[in-house]
Amino acid sequence: MPADVDALVLSNDRLSEAYNVVGLAAPSIAAAAQPGQFVMVREDRPGAPLLRRPFSIFEILRDDQGRPTGISLLNKRVGVVTGALYAREPGGRLQCLGPLGRPFSVGTPPAEAWMVAGGVGLAPFATLAEALREQRTPATLYYGGRSASDLFHVDWFERRDIRVVLATEDGSRGEAGLITGPLERHLALLPAAAPLMIHACGPTGMMRAVAQLAQASGRATEVSLEPVMGCGLGGCYSCVVPVRSGPATPSQLVRSCLQGPVFPGHQVAWNELAPAV
Amino acid sequence: MSSINLTVNLGQLQLKNPLVAASGCFGYGTEYSDVVDLSTLGAIAVKGLFLQERPGHVPPRIVETPSGMLNAIGLQGIGVRRFIDERLPALRKHRAVVIVNICGTTVDEYAELARILSDAPGVAALELNISCPNIKEGGITFGCDLRGAHDVVSAVRRATSLPVIPKLTPNVTDVASFARAAEEAGADAVSLVNTFLAMAIDVETRRPRLSNVFGGLSGPAIRPIAVRMVYECRQAVRIPIMGMGGIMTAEDVVEFLVAGADAVQVGTANFVDPFVWPKLLDGLTGYLERHGHGAVRDIVGTVAVPGAAQRISS
């Protein structure tokens, strides 16, 4: 059951001119959150945008005893709401409804888990990485961006025994090119019998490419879609995405707040996904 | 426990309080059962239903605008049969008072929906969607034509003994004349207003922000217009009115009641704050106590407008 928390802003780490991480005091959300879930956020002040906006839960914040005390959000400044979130100072408050949505599945050994992140699509993978580590599931993060200045928290994942593979379009860090390059090569090298789940979050084109690469090599994927969302609770029917229950069946528009945001990659009708998604 | 009488009557339908979830803004009600005690609402107007399932429009379906939002969902829905089989039992279990919003492309379809729902246990009333701005066929084509509105209401009236509540569109010159047409055709009450037909453009791409090009504007931006329309309809008809349009707070609820609404519907506010319901009810109760009223109905239509009598008769 989701809670609406009037959350104190604990911290705002500005990672670059565009990216920041906002820490929020929200113990009930932190305690209930599962990997890949999201919160609906709004500022409660005159003149603030009316509707909440969805954000993946990035980290679970904990106290010295390891008890969950809050969550953080990885934010990229692109519009009015993300701009306000970038500017938010500690001591302010944000209304935070969650946790919401269908989470990632967390594989167990001997299966491996590969996480494929593009840009701000890194957001849902911190919680997944911790859950995989608890299960001792071998995990790899494939993480791509335009340039080195778009990549963050690499050491955070490495400290949690996640193997990290990086790619940048300008070659300033990791391999030059798209992250699907190394992903495709590594898929080809993996023995067919080795069980694997691939999780992806990022630009639609990247997720689609990952889903298609995986399908071609008979691998299962989960993708975290990020459509425009109105309420997060299934009330407004605005966040629908086209999915198919079988390869030959026509697609249906389903609510990503309830049936997603995590979907099996092969079920998404990528050709019909709106460009804005 | 407050001694305030919160009950309101919509014709033969008595509600325990005047707060009703607006159709299209609360799913089928069951989506909210985790966060709202559905039995505490006056009623739930469920998402509009056709005879058949409908896929709705392709996204993007909503866009935020100043103090409001546009939507063009396109009445995606599971159809009346699946609603009765899959949703109604859960709504009954939660002791929700269910107003089913129905939409057809012909008068006969409305009547058929009314007949089907009359036989379904747990339906308290029918709200006739003759006002959705987002679909080409049906709906608003009846709501923008006095004859059409009259025909739909009387056909449904003949088909059911359930309370019949047409939901009126504000996208007409004189909404009060539509309230009168509904009353003459045998409506038990009217609800108003649906959303305002609107458009938003991304100036960088010079493309509409909604796939459907047009959408319906809701939220606080429309509230003063909706209040005016409720006031006008109150002067025009004797049947009860469910007023709506951008209600976010208890003060907004009171404003609609004072303007002449017997009950109110709350839509967009659900998206902003799904926990809004107890706040609205507490605020309304507090207002009535503060002003020495023992019942909600004591404040309905009590707005004091200087010279109002002349203006109405002119």
The average pLDDT value of chain A, as a whole number, equals 95
What's the order of the H and E elements of chain A? EEHEEEEHEEHEHEEHEHEEEE
The ordered H/E elements of chain B are EEEEEEHEHEHHEHEEEEEHEHEHHH
CATH level 3 topology of the largest domain in chain A:
Rossmann fold
Number of helices of chain A: 6
CATH homologous superfamily label of the largest domain in chain A: Nucleotide-binding domain of ferredoxin-NADP reductase (FNR) module
Give the CA-based shape of chain B. globular
Distance between the termini of chain A: 27 Å
Q: Name the strands of the widest sheet of chain B in spatial order.
A: 9-8-7-4-3-16-15-10
Number of domains of chain B: 1
Number of domains of chain A: 2
Contiguous runs where pLDDT drops below 50 for at least 5 residues of chain A: none
Describe this structure in words.
The complex is a heterodimer of chains A (277) and B (314). With 277 residues, chain A is an alpha/beta fold. Chain A folds into two domains: 3-100, Elongation Factor Tu (Ef-tu), domain 3, CATH 2.40.30; 112-226, Rossmann fold. Chain A is built from six helices and 16 strands. In chain A, strands 4-3-7-1-2-6-5 form a seven-stranded antiparallel beta sheet. Chain A has a seven-stranded mixed beta sheet with strand order 11-10-9-8-12-13-16, sandwiched between helices. In chain A, helix 6 (204-216) links the parallel strand 12 (196-201) and strand 13 (220-224). The longest helix of chain A has 13 residues, at 204-216. Chain A is globular. The relative contact order of chain A is 0.14. Helix content of chain B is 33%, strand content 20%. In chain B, helix 4 (146-159) runs parallel beside helix 5 (175-184) and helix 5 crosses helix 6. Chain B starts with 7 loop residues before the first strand and ends with a helix. Chain B has one domain: TIM Barrel, CATH 3.20.20. With 314 residues, chain B is of the alpha/beta class. An eight-stranded parallel beta sheet of chain B has the order 9-8-7-4-3-16-15-10. Chain B has a four-stranded antiparallel beta sheet with strand order 5-6-14-11, with no helix packed on it. Chain B has a two-stranded antiparallel ribbon with strand order 1-2. Chain B has ten helices and 16 strands. Classes of the chains: A alpha/beta (277), B alpha/beta (314). The interface between A and B is medium-sized, with 30 and 34 residues.
